[in-house]
Design brief:
23 strands; Porin; about 500 residues; 3 domains
């Protein structure tokens, strides 16, 4: 074989990748977890597509070249995910092409507690290009045909568990292992087997702001396959979801990798470079990896974000309203106490005024009787006569108001006549409470008149069109309140 082929074999042995290369793995898988675990299909919530190319063992002809295209998205409120991955992996004379369709399903146990599982099924083609090889024995029957190609079934399985900031992933590439048989013209055969792999990731997110847009996380990846040494990666990534990421990775016994990515609107671009360590530095310049992504954001996400903003604003307004209501209730209680006190003082003043008027009327009557008894010709002052004329009575106070100033409880016009009033209130709640208490006391005819300006409510228990009848029954309602009076509406 040529010197290039020998170098490739040495590199594969030094890095212990002779079996692991059946399942190609790059340095930026944390930017697109779906490509390593079918359970992650649709996990991002939006449809997204990625295109990646990796050149390993840079500077060495025939080094591994890996390219993939993936697309995935979610349906039914993120419960179900669908995706597809197409991969091409070329290592010198070996070429492996595959296409898998993936399905995932998620179960939520709480706000930050969920489990997803996924499965991928598809086809895989393995081809050996003998025309690219250099043989010492040109008559070897194994190269009678320039290439050998076989296509078969392949499948992957995966699980993804999330609890708050902790994430655990598990995947089994090549779930159903198979062996392709190749025959040459002489009937001799050789086999190229696809082995079942095990792959697991552990990740913990440390969010650096309340919106969770900036996160730093350590992430471990372990890989195992029968017949090959155990392999692991250690990653540390700082990710600002609206800007991009910076990452550093250590691949066991192979390389130290650094990566950087930028996000602009719906586009994502990332680059990673692997620096070989140990003996590998003597043979290669490392590896280069590029990734390009596009996210198809749908309007429902923007609408959901807008709904959340509106609901947050509504909650703030409701909280403010509750605080204002508490202040109003507090002030209302103080105001009600003041009003009740003023009403008591007013009632006392009215009562005193009525007593004073009664005394004046009695005094005038005595003066008149004395004058008649003595036969005096002295005339009684005109203003005294005027004071005796109080709606045809000396001892009843009758207030007269315009019908246009009042309505009944339903806002309808009221009838002209005389109303026996037992209380007047400016606060509607107090008027209703007082009316209900009067009704509970047995005066079921209690109602109130609503005055327009100034706004108040007069609680009355009797109505008539006859003044004399009103005066006759007024005293029977004195047990309700000391402020019983007659209101005339005309």
């Amino acid at each position: 074989m040529s010197s290039n082929k020998i170098i490739i074999l040495i590199l594969l042995c030094v890095t212990k990748f002779s079996y692991a290369q059946q399942v190609p793995l790059g340095s930026q898988y944390y930017a697109n977890m779906f490509v390593i675990n079918p359970a992650m299909a649709g996990n991002s919530g939006n449809m997204q597509a990625f295109l990646s190319h990796r050149s390993q063992f840079a500077g060495v002809p025939g080094g591994p070249l890996t390219s993939y295209f993936s697309i995935d998205g979610s349906i039914k409120k993120d419960k179900i995910g669908l995706g597809m991955v197409m991969t091409t992996d070329v290592t010198d004379i070996l070429t492996r092409n595959s296409m898998l369709i993936s399905y995932s399903y998620g179960v939520k146990f709480g706000e930050d507690h969920s489990l997803r599982f996924g499965i991928g099924v598809g086809i895989q083609n393995n081809r050996v290009d003998f025309d690219k090889a250099t043989f010492k024995d040109q008559g070897d029957l194994i190269i009678a045909e320039s290439s050998r190609s076989r296509t078969g079934f392949t499948s992957d399985f995966g699980l993804f568990y999330k609890l708050k900031n902790f994430e655990l992933g598990f995947a089994v590439p090549n779930l159903i292992s198979n062996s392709e048989l190749y025959l040459n013209s002489s009937g001799e055969d050789f086999r190229l087997s696809s082995l079942r792999h095990l792959r697991s990731t552990v990740k913990y997110n440390f969010y650096l702001n309340n919106s969770k847009d900036v996160v730093i996380y350590p992430m471990m990846m372990v890989r195992a396959v029968k017949g090959a040494p155990f392999q692991w990666d250690a990653n540390l990534v700082l990710d600002a979801k609206k800007i991009g990421w910076l990452g550093i990775s250590y691949h066991s016994n192979y390389a130290l990798a650094v990566s950087a990515g930028v996000r602009f609107k719906n586009l994502t671009f990332g680059y990673a470079h692997d620096f070989g360590i140990g003996q590998l530095q003597n043979f290669t310049k490392g590896a280069n990896e590029f990734i390009l992504g596009y996210q198809f954001k749908n309007n429902s996400d923007e609408q959901l974000k807008r709904i959340i903003e509106i609901e947050t604003r509504i909650a703030e307004l409701e909280d403010s309203q509750l605080k204002n209501q508490a202040r109003y209730d507090s002030l209302s209680q103080v105001s009600n106490k003041n009003i009740i006190e003023l009403e008591k003082q007013l009632a006392q003043t009215i009562e005193k005024q009525e007593i004073l008027n009664d005394s004046i009327n009695k005094a005038n009557a005595m003066i008149k009787d004395i004058s008649l008894t003595q036969g005096s010709k002295t005339k009684v002052p005109q203003d005294s006569k005027t004071n005796n004329k109080t709606d045809g009575t000396k001892d009843e106070k009758v207030r007269t108001e315009s019908r246009d100033l009042f309505t009944d409880e339903e806002g309808n016009p009221i009838e002209n006549g005389y109303y026996i009033v037992v209380g007047t209130f400016g606060v509607p709640q107090n008027a209703i409470k007082f009316k209900n208490s009067v009704i509970e006391a047995g005066y079921t005819n209690a109602k109130f008149l609503q005055r327009k300006n100034p706004p108040n409510r007069n609680i009355y228990v009797f109505y008539t069109k006859d003044l004399e009848e009103a005066k006759a029954v007024k005293s029977t309602y004195a047990v309700i309140s000391s402020k019983v009076w007659i209101l005339r509406i005309e």
